[in-house]
């Protein structure tokens, strides 16, 4: 998620100072929104901006997908998972068949 405040105010011809004065946000918050696109405003800050300029939040925020992980990393991860599963399946198990239900249990059934 990124904010597009800098682009928004540039398109409107508004200075950062004017943006701060118009919205009545804290100075640090207003300037950080203009300077740092990775700074996502809280709901109340977003509400002040939308109310001041009569815009929808979608004009101020954009969602960007995370970068795709490298295919080699995915392949290595999957191979590791397959090896782990193979080791689990090689462990000896004592199985007994429950005669009444036909269920295979991973342990010996003992009566009480």
Automatic annotation (TrEMBL):
<feature type="domain" description="HTH cro/C1-type">
    <location>
        <begin position="4"/>
        <end position="66"/>
    </location>
</feature>
<feature type="region of interest" description="Disordered">
    <location>
        <begin position="84"/>
        <end position="112"/>
    </location>
</feature>
<dbReference type="Pfam" id="PF13443">
    <property type="entry name" value="HTH_26"/>
</dbReference>
<dbReference type="InterPro" id="IPR010982">
    <property type="entry name" value="Lambda_DNA-bd_dom_sf"/>
</dbReference>
<dbReference type="InterPro" id="IPR001387">
    <property type="entry name" value="Cro/C1-type_HTH"/>
</dbReference>
<protein>
    <submittedName>
        <fullName>Helix-turn-helix transcriptional regulator</fullName>
    </submittedName>
</protein>
<feature type="compositionally biased region" description="Basic and acidic residues">
    <location>
        <begin position="84"/>
        <end position="100"/>
    </location>
</feature>
């Amino acid at each position: 998620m990124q904010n597009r405040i800098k682009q928004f105010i540039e398109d409107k011809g508004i200075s950062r100072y004017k943006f701060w004065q118009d919205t009545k946000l804290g100075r640090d918050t207003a300037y950080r929104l203009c300077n740092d696109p990775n700074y996502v405003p809280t709901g109340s800050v977003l509400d002040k901006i939308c109310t001041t300029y009569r815009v929808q939040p979608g004009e101020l925020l954009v969602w960007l997908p995370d970068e795709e992980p490298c295919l080699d990393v995915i392949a290595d991860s999957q191979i590791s998972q397959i090896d782990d599963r193979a080791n689990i399946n090689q462990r000896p198990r004592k199985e007994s068949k429950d005669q009444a239900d036909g269920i295979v249990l991973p342990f010996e059934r003992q009566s009480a």
